Amino acid sequence: MLPIIIVIGGLVVILLVIALAVIAIYNGLVAKRVQCENGWAQIDVQLKRRYDLIPNLVETVKGYASHEKETLESVIRARQQAIDAGSVGEQAQAESFLTATLGKLFALSEAYPELKANENFMQLQEELTSTENKIGFARQHYNDVVSRYNTACQQFPANIVAGMFNFEQREFFEVVDEAVREAPQVQF
């Protein structure tokens, strides 16, 4: 009778340890998933700020370079595509296109010295540059937390728990267009 009680007690302890391990792994995965969501929210905040600056920038340029309608319209189109993007991959592709069109917009200032000297344009350019830096930091943070989350989802024994509870890997925020990987050369 005593050996049966010891065996049952041992099994209960083992099951309890396994249950506690599964709970700890699950909670760790949830925490990492929330960090990914927070990281994406930080990118979203900075992108929203960028999108809000762009119409002001376009309006300022429009006053000096009204016949550059195609460039101005492509910037507005690129902004709207970025706003409408759904997945991380779509967002990255839209942001690449937006960055390229903004580079063309800034290049216009070379042809219009009075625009280059405009205080409002200079302030908007400075704000946009600051926002671009913040977006870069937010992207880096997001990719760091996604890396930790994806690694945790793939490592044993967390991969078993991740599979049981449908923890799916996250997509990195990567520059899609090879031409955009290099910073635009804009001089004012």
Summed up, what is this model?
Helix content is 78%, strand content 0%. With 188 residues, it is an all-alpha fold. The chain has one domain: Up-down Bundle (de novo design (two linked rop proteins)), CATH 1.20.1440.
| Total strands | 0
CATH architecture: Up-down Bundle
CATH level 3 topology: de novo design (two linked rop proteins)
Q: How helix-rich are the residues, as a percent range?
A: over 70%
Global morphology? rod-shaped
Distance between the termini: 89 Å
Report the portion of residues in β strands: under 5%
Mean pLDDT: 86
Q: Any idea of the CATH class? A: Mainly Alpha
Task: Give the oligomeric state of the chains in this entry, treating copies of one chain as homo and distinct chains as hetero.
Answer: single chain
Q: How do the SSEs run, as a string of H and E? A: HHHHHH
Radius of gyration over alpha carbons? 25 Å
Count structural domains. Answer: 1
Low-confidence stretches: none
Query: What structural class do the secondary elements suggest?
Result: mainly alpha
Largest sheet entry: none
Q: Identify the CATH homologous superfamily.
A: LemA-like domain
The number of helices is 6
Topology:
Layout: H1 2-64, H2 69-84, H3 88-108, H4 113-116, H5 119-154, H6 158-164
Helix pairs in contact: 1-2, 1-5, 2-3
Could you please describe the fold and organization of this structure?
This protein is mainly alpha-helical and 188 residues long. It has one domain: Up-down Bundle (de novo design (two linked rop proteins)), CATH 1.20.1440. Helices cover 78% and strands 0% of the residues. The protein has 6 helices and no strands. Helix 1 (2-64) runs antiparallel to helix 5 (119-154) and helix 2 (69-84) runs antiparallel to helix 3. The protein is rod-shaped, with a radius of gyration of 25 Å. The N and C termini lie far apart (89 Å).
